[in-house]
Amino acid sequence: MSDIPCADAPAETPVDALALDGELTIVQAAAVRERLLEWLPQTDGRLDLSGVHACDSAGIQLLLALSRSLRESGRTLQILQPSTAVVESLQRYGLDALRA
User: Fold this and answer.
1) Taking every annotated instance into account, which residue ranges of this chain make up the domain STAS (predicted)?
2) Which of 2, 42, 57, 79 sits CB 3.0–4.6 Å from 6 for a disulfide?
3) Which residue has the higher pLDDT, 3 or 68?
């Protein structure tokens, strides 16, 4: 299973972190995937999810795929400020233990 550490971070998003907001759902999956693919080559893996208000299995799949891609290149995904929707989805799919 992939490692998706989550951390409470300062109120401001770090400059090099990607902040996602809105939905991490099947409806937005393609657009979010494109944004993540653009971000992937230039990141250290910090992702601010404080603005996400909906997250379903498609959103979780995106996070797991992102984690795997980062790990393959020697980096790790760190979720900063996961919203309640993200935390609940991680719990729903049995991934709550991945929040560090």
Assistant:
1) 18-100
2) 79
3) 68
**Structural domains of the chain, ranges and CATH numbers in brackets:** 6-10+18-98 (3.30.750.24)
Tokens of 44: 């250290």
Q: What's this model's pTM, rounded to 2 decimal places?
A: 0.82
Say which amino acid occupies 30: A
* Tokens standing for residue 6: 């989550």
Q: pLDDT tens digit string along 10-31?
A: 455 555 799 999 999 999 999 9
Q: Which pLDDT band, with edges at 50, 70 and 90, does 1 fall under?
A: very low
DSSP string, 62-90: HHHHHHHHHHHTT---EEES--HHHHHHH
Place of tokens 């893996």: 45
Q: How far apart are CA 66 and CA 2, in angstroms?
A: 10
Residue with tokens 């891609």: 69
